[in-house]
Amino acid sequence: MPRALAARVPFYYGWVVLGCLCCAGFARQGPAVATLSIFIEPLSREFGWSRTALSGAVSLGGVLAAVAAPMIGPLLDRHGSRVVLSLAVAANGIALLLLSLTPSLLIFYLLFCFARMNWAGTFDLGIYSALNNWFVARRTAAASVAHVAQMAGLVAMPLIAQFAILHDGWRMGWIVLGLTTLAVGLIPVWLFVVRRPEDLGLEPDRAVPAQAGGPAPEPRFSRREAIRTPAFWLLMAYTAMVYPVQAGVSLHQAPHLVERGIDPTTAAGIVAFFSFMSAIATIACGFLPRRWPLRYPLALAGVLMAGGTLLLPDVASAREAFFAGGLFGLGIGTMLTLTPVAWADYFGRANYGAIRGISLSTQVIAQAMGPLMSGVLYDLTGNYTISLHAFATLSAISVAVALAARPPKIAG
Questions:
Q1: 88 near 188, Cβ under 8 Å?
Q2: Measuring CA to CA, which residue among 366, 118, 121 is closest to residue 235?
Q3: Using H for helix, E for strand and C for coil, what is the string for the chain?
Q4: pLDDT category, 6, cuts 50, 70, 90?
Q5: How far is 14 from 359, CA to CA, in rounded Å?
Q6: Which of 35, 191, 207, 338 is deepest in the core (most CB within 10 A)?
Q7: What's the confidence (pLDDT) of residue 28?
């Protein structure tokens, strides 16, 4: 079917693939933290589970993703995103459906941690592997579109769950989420996603032109070759520095603002504005000229994150908080959109899954450490000042790391 469709459509078939990846990204958000938050109160009320117990499922799922990602990556390179993403969507859809039958905390952990592992690992690898295989010149634009679709899912899935819970209880909430995941994500991915354009006799969209004229040669690093380059370790270091900031500040932003004397409703509005500015940055990334080295916007993301985080400890008014949150949101949106693109630009499409799988383990662990760091320092000091200063320092160091991360010389 994809070959026949590719022959009929009057445009590049990669856009069909991107549309399917957007569906998968939307469907991915069933086990997102924002979605789980809708279930915390009814589950706690019915079973008496503590908030710590429910939150632990998120952390454990992240740990499982960190372990699984390096093994999933090579499978993805061999079999392609269609198979891997279809299995991930189907598995998550079934797990969410089965969560409606939850009788105990153990069963909840088994099902939710499995779904969360897919959310953090398999979906990320599958979506960006296919995207980077099909797009070269328009890679940043395609990544921007895919990220916006995932953010749309992050908004919609909690609302869908809440609607179902209000009408027929939390068990119906899981059922509706499972059915939505399967309907939105599985059908288009299974029917229309193709591993790479060469499988249909096509080529990726036009290659980035070299300065001397003509297409620039495409990187083609193996995982072993990539690990031997300074660029690999610099991108890993950048990942390890910015993702604790992203998770740690995002989770604790609202309570910090309330403690600074800002009304809770206004604080919620500031968090929404942060998300809005993150979306604006994501869209803006799609218009970046491909001739610009990615290390520059990645460094800019570090500057914005450092600036916003530095301002947060001393905010004294809603206006200051909106400004700080907006700066931070711009940095987060830029970083989240361009980091997966950088791995493909630097090391090529052929072994993207294997290479990205290693970095994804670092990313997931770093995201888990950020909120833990904030929480521990808050308990020790009674406020978020030290943790915010620490996050600002990490962001500032990431600027120098990003600028040093020049693309490696092409193998061979």
A1: no
A2: 366
A3: CHHHHHHHCCCCCHHHHHHHHHHHHHHCCCCCHHHHHHHHHHHHHHHCCCHHHHHHHHHHHHHHHHHHHHHHHHHHHHHCHHHHHHHHHHHHHHHHHHHCCCCCHHHHHHHHHHHHHHHHHHHHHHHHHHHHHHCCCCHHHHHHHHHHHHHHHHHHHHHHHHHHHHHHHHHHHHHHHHHHHHHHHHHHHHHHCCCCHHHHCCCCCCCCECCCCCECCCCECCHHHHHCCHHHHHHHHHHHHHHHHHHHHHHHHHHHHHHCCCCHHHHHHHHHHHHHHHHHHHHHHCCCCCCCCCHHHHHHHHHHHHHHHHHHHHCCCHHHHHHHHHHHHHHHHHHHHHHHHHHHHHHECCCHHHHHHHHHHHHHHHHHHHHHHHHHHHHHHCCCHHHHHHHHHHHHHHHHHHHHCCCCCCCC
A4: low
A5: 26
A6: 338
A7: 94
What's this model's pTM, rounded to 2 decimal places?
0.83
Residues in the chain: 412
Q: In this structure, what token pair is assigned to residue 228?
A: 């031997």
CATH code linked to domain 223-404: 1.20.1250.20
Nearest-10 crossing angle of helices 318-347, 139-181: 100
Q: Where are the domains of the chain?
A: 14-198, 223-404
Residue among 40, 164, 64 nearest 119 (CA): 64
Tokens of 112: 């939710």
Look at residue 211 in the predicted model and tell me its pLDDT.
45
Residue located via tokens 């932003």: 253
Structure token pair of residue 409: 């010389």
**Domain 14-198 falls in which CATH fold?**
Growth Hormone; Chain: A; (1.20.1250)
At residue 378's C-alpha, the angle toward residues 375 and 382, to 5°, is: 155
Q: What's the pLDDT tens digit per position in 84-104?
A: 999 999 999 999 999 999 999
Smallest CA-to-CA distance from 253 within 157, 155, 370, 365 is with 370
Same fold, 14-198 and 223-404: yes
Rounded to whole angstroms, how far apart are CA atoms 219 and 405? 16
